[in-house]
Amino acid sequence: MSHAISFSSGAFQCPYALYPAASPAAFTLLVLPALGVTARKYEGLARALNAAGHHVLVADWPGQGDSQPRPSRRHDYGYRQLVEEFVPALLAEARRQFPEAAPVLLGHSLGGHISTLYAAANPSGSVPVVGVACGNIHYRNWQGRGRLLTPSVALLFGLIVRVLGYLPGRRLGFGGHEARRLMLDWGRVAFTGNYRHLGLPLAPAAHNRVASLYLQMEGDHFAPPASTLGLAALIQADPRLQRLASPRPARENPHSAWLKAPQSVAECIDAWLRRDLSGESAGAA
Questions:
Q1: How confident is the model over 212-262, as pLDDT tens digits?
Q2: How far is residue 207 from each of residues 109, 120, 193, 203, 210, measured CA to CA in Å?
């Protein structure tokens, strides 16, 4: 990665990788990763989207992957900074690198949260959103004992980040080296189901003009259908989603296993772009 953006008044340098299509493209997909997943893991998806004729930009979250420094008490950030600073900086880079192409946010898990919140805070409709394996983590979006999981994890992680100033996710088997405020913001949604604590000016879904596509992977217990619908409801007055079978064996977690075989996801996104957005691309760019 030879390109980077500055984040949080220069506290973080966040590299991003460019994957240009072989010929001029109508769209640039800006890939926002899942929690703890590095930008390099999305190369297969980027190549599949390239083959379909789209430019791709993939960025590491602040302090993740090749981004430095790692989150700490001194170097911290939350959802609101990502929505108001990180995403606009990436959009500016995408427009600078590929001025002929309209940007589209493509978020996986945490990336889907941030993409959706950006669209809810910017409802004019100029930047479409694709969410893959993502959802609102409110406990009511799970059934049975699953309802206990996210609030229990949120309580545990909240205690850890308050003591350490960050989340040692690699040691815990969830995420990476994560920022304190990011995890507190994440955890609060598990109890409330809403994002009012962020203080973002979120427009009602009925007033939102953003085009969006939400893909839910069958068997994804980290983002079941009710969870994905709950997130889509932030910007869709009548939430809809498209379900895809996992392209990997059942023993592999569909939430991220699709990255090993991203062709079906890329094909679905390409079909949506060509069917629903190709007439709008010139104006959106």
A1: 999 999 999 999 999 999 999 999 999 999 999 999 999 999 999 999 999
A2: 25, 9, 20, 7, 9
Euclidean distance between CA atoms 6 and 11, whole angstroms: 7
Task: Say if CB 28 and CB 56 are below 8 A apart.
Answer: yes
In the chain, which ranges are continuous DSSP H helix?
Answer: 43-51, 79-81, 87-97, 110-121, 146-164, 169-172, 180-192, 225-232, 254-257, 263-272, 281-284
Q: Where are the domains positioned within the chain?
A: 3-137+199-279
Structure-token pair, residue 29: 């997909």
CB-hemisphere CA count at 13 Å for 14? 28
What count of other Cβ atoms lies within 10 Å of the Cβ of residue 143? 9
Check: CB of residue 183 under 8 Å from CB of residue 79.
no
Top-level CATH class of 3-137+199-279? alpha beta
The per-residue pLDDT for 126 is 87
Cα 52 to chain centroid distance, Å, stands at 21
- Looking only at the bridges linking them, the beta strands covering 166-168 and 177-179 are antiparallel
Q: Rounded CA gap, 256 and 266, in Å?
A: 14
End-to-end CA gap in the chain: 25
Check: pTM over 0.85? Answer yes or no.
yes
pLDDT in tens, 132-183: 999 999 999 999 988 999 999 999 999 999 999 999 999 999 999 999 999 9
Angle between helix 146-164 and 180-192 (nearest 10): 150
**For 2-56, what is the HEC assignment?**
CEEEEECCCCEEEEEEEECCCCCCCEEEEEECCCCCCHHHHHHHHHHHHHCCCEE
Amino acid at 207: H
- Which tokens sit at 172? 């815990």
